[in-house]
């Protein structure tokens, strides 16, 4: 009986040492070229067509990135899905970031749907140019901020289904911010009210994109919540 008690005490001590030791924490992943996978239950991806990129993926969807001499590069972490947008429930992302673009760049919620193939953006902040350079379809107030809605088309460009022609849906804030809560589902509803319909959601991510620019960013919070 004494031996059993002693073993329990020793096991408890060992577990305390292991759990309290930072060397046993999950190590961050550093990427410099195109890659995607899952880490700590978050999907991550670095995609670029050229240039210098570094992305460090940490726990809880947090990441940092740096880019220079690029044409186009995207750094993102989030969640993968295979459900129509109106069956997901209410998706919210609470985030905070240190964002230092030098030139054309976006800090955004970013994702794709299939059937139809749509690339979508909820732009929270940007660099030297406010996207997307199109005619606004109107405004919507979500989470206390005003966003303009746009639709654009990309012809024979890279997509999650290879080189395709596809549409893009945009919500772009009228004033920049680098932290807060985004009720993603309310943007989907606003787009649908304009006839901009999504299909099966493939991914929803917090993303930093750079285009013919340089810069850096540090995502210090990226918390997803989904309520039915």
The structure class reads mainly beta
- Report the strand count: 13
Low-confidence stretches: 9-24
How many alpha or pi helices?
Answer: 2
Q: What's the main sheet like?
A: 13 strands, mixed
Q: Give the averaged pLDDT, no decimals.
A: 92
Give the overall silhouette. Answer: globular
Radius of gyration based on Cα positions: 20 Å
User: What's the order of the H and E elements?
Assistant: HEEEEEEEEEEEEHE
Describe this structure in words.
The structure is a single chain. Strands 1, 2, 3, 4, 5, 6, 7, 8, 9, 10, 11, 12 and 13 form a 13-stranded mixed beta sheet that branches. This protein is mainly β and 228 residues long. The chain is built from 2 helices and 13 strands; from the N terminus they run αββββββββββββαβ. The model is unreliable at 9-24 (pLDDT under 50). The radius of gyration is 20 Å and the shape is globular.
């Amino acid at each position: 009986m004494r031996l059993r008690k002693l073993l329990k005490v020793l096991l408890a001590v060992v577990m305390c040492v292991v759990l309290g030791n930072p060397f046993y924490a999950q190590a961050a992943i550093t990427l410099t070229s195109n890659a995607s996978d899952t880490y700590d239950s978050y999907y991550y991806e670095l995609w670029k067509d050229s240039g210098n990129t570094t992305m460090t993926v940490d726990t809880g969807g947090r990441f940092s990135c740096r880019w220079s001499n690029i044409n186009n590069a995207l750094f993102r972490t989030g969640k993968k899905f295979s459900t129509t947008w109106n069956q997901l429930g209410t998706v919210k992302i609470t985030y905070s970031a240190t964002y230092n673009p030098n030139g054309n760049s976006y800090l955004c919620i970013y994702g794709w749907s299939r059937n139809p193939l749509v690339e979508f953006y909820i732009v929270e902040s940007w660099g030297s140019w406010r996207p997307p350079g199109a005619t606004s379809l109107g405004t919507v107030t979500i989470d206390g901020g005003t966003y303009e809605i746009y639709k654009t088309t990309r012809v024979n460009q890279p997509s999650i289904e290879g080189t395709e022609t596809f549409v893009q849906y945009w919500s772009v804030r009228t004033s920049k911010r680098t932290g807060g809560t985004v009720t993603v589902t309310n943007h989907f509803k606003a787009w649908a009210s304009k006839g901009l319909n999504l299909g099966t959601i493939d991914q929803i991510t917090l993303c930093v994109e750079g285009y013919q620019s340089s810069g850096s960013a540090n995502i210090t919070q990226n918390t997803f919540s989904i309520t039915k």
